Amino acid sequence: MSLDPSSQCVLPHSVFAGKDICNYIESHCDVSYFKISQIYYCRYHNLVSLIFISSIALLALCLILLALSILVSNYLFRNLNELTTKFGLSNQILSFILIPLTNSFPDIINYFVVLRSGSSNLVIGQLMGSLLIIFTVIIGLISILIENFTIEYPKLLIIDLSWILIVLILFSYILSDGKITSLECITMSMVYVAYIAFLSIFDKERLKDYDEELVIGHDEHQHLIEQPYNIEDALSIISNEETGGEFGSIETRSRSASPRLSPVSTRCPSPLPATSPKGDRDSERESYLSIHYVAKMKSSSSSPPTAAAAPVAAPAPAPAPASRHLQQIRIKIMLTHIFQTVCNCIDFILIFLIPFHKCIENEDSHWKLKIRYNRIIRAWYFFEVPLLINYQFFKFPVVYVMPLLLIFSPTMLIVKSIGHDIKLVITSILGIITSLIVISNISVYILQMLKNIGIIWNISEYLLGMLVFAVSNSINDVITNVTLATKINPILGINSCLGTPLLIILLGVGFNGFVVLQNSKKHSIKFDLKPSVILDTAALIFTISFILIYLPWNKWRLDRKLGICLICWYLVITFINLYLE
């Protein structure tokens, strides 16, 4: 397999002292790539520096992974969605491929970059760690927080878990010899094709009656959009639940009922009445753009309306509990606003890197709308997008590219004369290309950050992937899926967990592995078949089998006992991995 020499730096077991490690890094490793490790071992080799540098590196890693999630859901997915809608592709492409693939796309790109660098142990570790977190921590937290939720359609859950169990057994067999061959990569890719074919047949009724998707809409306008979930959605739900919403709503609806997928909405007609005065138009547009959350309450539909309307004298709460509750709400709102500010800062940077069509702006914030309608941003994209593409693919000197762009800059004046459909397609394609470029470069920096953390902590790549990479990468999934489960519908959080494993195994390892092997002209991807790999694979198979047995026995209820067992199981597996290391 093609190894990137700059990213390889394995400390020998005979080197223990900090000064010896410093000398080894400077003489055997790429100092520019392992700059953080070199600074730690050569200048600040003490406990305080270890804590400080590790904290900064982990914080930076979490922010980078958060940026990846926002980039994929807010830019890549929306541009892909515009193209699939414009060309009239099947709704199943969106429901079965595009939304699940978008949620897992950062992992798939990261796996490709890491496999190409020769760090297969890091990929296997991250894969095992992520799957363990999904089936123990996330499902465990959902089971604890929702308390005795009964699964309404257990057959669907059985089918999803059975597919995952079959794929895990196949994957464990593939890993059993310490290498992954081209034939095995092709087999995994074909299993994913078979899975999509199965969904296209089975899920016709499932889409119609059972499955739900997040839909953003407004009470007076029928402009809706299906989208993958990310941490921004979760923060918006939490924030609006505490502060109250006035205009819009985030609801769960049947996917098949979404008019966003119909040809009528492809042109993004204005939701505003044509005869409205200007002031009313602006206020209505502002209302439309303010999207808030309305909780899905099962009890609200069953309660009599007369009882809800009747005035009832509520007893005055005790001052101390009320004060504590108010303080908790304030802290929750403050933390939510901090996270939202961080997300907005990331989004503010990305908006200057990746174009997308105005048609999608109705679901965005006010500040983003103002930037998009500014004429200067069009000129900025005219220069920025070609320079970014040149940086990634052609690498011509900037001194030659800039004069050409200046010569052709008057062509910006004819943009208004281009038809709406052509403009939409061109903008979406450029948005997809720039998104992929940014994602691939971010993935390279993620790998560099992980490699430096591994050298500083002096741990194996497998444990680095299982703990550091998997945990930091799963923060977004934990917040998003648990919020969806507790604030909207538990089955939404569970379904979000079930879509990821097949993709990151079959495409993240299978398809990526095949591409890497073809490019490197090798026959197999080799990795260290350590006891930790065997332990984690067996633990995953046992966990899913346990869930499949426990739920029917417990009458398809997710309860606190299940959640505590799953989380404790994750802690036990983690401690055993640390002991084996």
Automatic annotation (TrEMBL):
Where does the record place the region Disordered?
Answer: 246-284
Name the keywords, alphabetized: Membrane, Transmembrane, Transmembrane helix, Transport
> Domain of life, per the record?
Eukaryota
**UniProt domain Sodium/calcium exchanger membrane region: residue ranges:** 59-199, 428-578
**Main location per the UniProt record:** membrane
User: Localized where?
Assistant: Membrane
* GO CC term, one of those recorded: membrane
GO biological process terms, alphabetically, are: intracellular calcium ion homeostasis
An example of a GO molecular function for this protein is: monoatomic cation transmembrane transporter activity
Among Gene3D superfamilies, the record links this protein to: NCX, central ion-binding region
Look up and give the membrane topology term.
Multi-pass membrane protein
Output the InterPro entries linked to this UniProt entry.
CaCA_antiporter, NaCa_Exmemb, NCX_ion-bd_dom_sf
Q: Where are the transmembrane segments?
A: 47-72, 93-112, 124-145, 157-175, 181-202, 333-356, 393-415, 424-447, 453-471, 492-517, 529-550, 562-580
Q: Which ranges are annotated Polar residues under compositional bias?
A: 255-268
Please give the family membership noted in the entry: Belongs to the Ca(2+):cation antiporter (CaCA) (TC 2.A.19) family.
Q: What is this protein called?
A: Sodium/calcium exchanger membrane region domain-containing protein
Native organism taxonomy:
Eukaryota, Fungi, Dikarya, Ascomycota, Saccharomycotina
